Amino acid sequence: MAAMAFLRPVSRFHGPKIDALKCTLYVQRRILSGGGGGGRINTSDSTVPVLIVGAGPVGLALSYFLNNLGVKCTIVEKRKAFSQHPQAHFINNRSMEIFRKLNGLADEILRHQPPVDWWRKFIYCSSLTGPILGSVDHMQSQDFDKVVSPVSVAHYSQYKLMRLLIKHLEDIGFQVTDKTMNTSEFELAEKQIVMGCECTSIDISDGGVTVTGHLAREGKHITKDFPCNFVVGADGAGSVVRKLMGIQMRGEQDLQRLISVHFTSLDLGQYLINERPGMLYFIFNTEAIGVIVAHDLEQGEFVLQVPFYPPQQKFEDFSFGMCEKLILNLVGRELADLNVLDVKPWVMNAEVADTFLGGNNRVILAGDAAHRFPPAGGFGMNTGIQDAHNLAWKLASVIKGISPPTVLSTYETERKEIAVYNTTLSVKNFKAAIAVPAALGLDPSIANSVHRSLNGTLGSILPSGVQKTILDGIFSIGRLQLSNSLLNENNPLGFSRLSKLRRIFEEGKSLQLQFPAEDLGFRYSKGALVPDNNSSLGAQEFPTGRRREYVPSSVPGSRLPHMEIQLFSKFPSEGAAMSTLDLVSSNKIEYLLMIPPIKESYELARAAFKVAEDYKVSLKVCVMWQEQTSGGIHSSENAVLPWTNVVDVIQVRKRSDSSPSWWDLCGMSDRGAILVRPDEHIAWRCSKVEVREDPVLILRGVFRALLGWDGMRSTGVSNA
Known about the structure:
Blueprint lengths: L7 E2 L7 H16 L15 E6 L3 H12 L4 E5 L12 E2 L1 H8 L4 H8 L8 E5 L6 E6 L16 E2 L2 H14 L3 E2 L15 E4 L1 E9 L2 E10 L2 E14 L6 H5 L4 E16 L1 H10 L4 E5 L4 E8 L4 E7 L12 H12 L7 E15 L3 E2 L4 E3 L5 E2 L6 H21 L9 H31 L4 H11 L2 H5 L2 H16 L12 H15 L9 H4 L44 E4 L9 E3 L10 E6 L3 H16 L3 E8 L20 E6 L10 H4 L7 E4 L5 E5 L8 H13 L9 E2 L2
Parallel strand pairs: 2-3, 2-12, 3-9, 5-14, 8-9, 12-19, 23-24, 24-25
Antiparallel strand pairs: 1-28, 4-7, 5-6, 10-11, 11-12, 13-16, 13-17, 14-15, 15-16, 17-20, 18-19, 21-22, 21-25, 23-26, 26-27
Helix pairs in contact: 2-5, 2-9, 9-10, 11-13, 16-18
């Protein structure tokens, strides 16, 4: 990679240092007191700093992140009870890395999830007890070796994840209100999760936001105004916050409508454990077509997804009895303990909000409120969790006076780019799922075309009963393609179709579960970072819909690469192994500067400490030693005095270990430096730390850009 010169200031930084600092601190005070177009931060006891609307996984996770950073928050949720209907169930590597630092949440998930061998495969069959048409194993050896990440992916139902999050929140003082709450005396306070409270209006003023909530308890109704500094709409795909702010969604609507059937059967679970364990079962036969998601085989918990074509088909048609018959047709045998628990309709969309911010950056959207994806690849909940992780430290920076409110615009800049990318990727993955039935002679586009015609001009002419008969006839003709007489190796047409199906599986063109390159390798191209001026970097590779392996990178905006390291002690071999990601604090707003143990790096570190102190932000310096030398490793603390927040680490080397060095892994020379943000993404780097200008002025320009005090054009820094 081409060498990067050290950032150097232009002439506007050549004035006296103290004058530049006074100017910075004056602007800082002015914006926080109400000037600068950002509005003031209300610090009265009656004002909640952050009100989160929506107690789903995104809202719960955000409250945990904010609490860790010392920011008071409260959640309101319109539902009176948490849903028990399984929805999302795949937690990708990046989300697990984030959960890993929430008091061991990731370890709990891994302990409670089903054994990996029970869910690593997608199985395609004529019934759960009939012939298998093919299977795809989505786990590879590198998914478990912890070379690219300190934790593996997980299969864990969303409602169970929410239970764990609530338990962890209760452990740190949060309280969930219940129906016995006295509404007449209710006042919103920090660390509350208020159930049965619907947001009905949002009023923006210079002093903050007033959210009006409607509560109902035991036949009593009450309306309350909740003053706050910021509102985060984490209230799902039908977000009330988004609608109240008049924010539109853009993209593809009604990709597919489905019925979701939550059911249990220990009998079926035990059978599948013994005969064909898997996560998803795609079932095609002459009686029924559907996908069964095995949320937990041991507990016998499943969700059936079947296509739904209203208004010719009505939701009321899917009674519990009808759903039981449908399940038995897909299973292929009787089940002694089949129990249908819930039936819900839902619509698959691929949309991203026009903006993630409203009300002068006071109202913020996160999760499904900001983007809606097809479930293919599990991007919905994971992208939402990562939204919350990105947003939390920026909100905390504003509330603590470290950054102006305008820094929140970088949340939209960074996360909207990822949302658009993930929308494209999930749509491609959804289309890959459709390739399988198409290979079997079931072209979904035909049914969709007929359905559109019936809902168009033709539908206005034909009686509803005739429309339903036509649609049912199309489905029946389609399912005949799946008869045993046609779909077998001895039938020339069946042989051709089965051969095509095998090629789809072998070439990785079917629905994929894992996307390591996107899950770990997503990169912010602009935002709260100082980008490289290197044209060879280019944009992120366009999504293919197929699994691509993650390649570590230290390009600004990338997640910090993982490497197993040890904190240096008197006896390095006795130090506990940890990840480079563990160097980034999860309980305070702290930047991390990673440097090699050379004289120029220590000079840079002292300058960084000086600037961080001026900006009232914490900084930790990590000195990355390559290997044990004959003279041993000496503490770097004295090299950066009077500052002492420095750690010395060394790469863990195993016998016959041929892994690259840290700087090689980052694609940099061993004389470079990397500055990491509180969310573990790289904020700035330089390939050589030979200082040609005053490093304090250089880093002041960098921190002004990162903290939001200046746009890149006026930071006084440039790549040379």
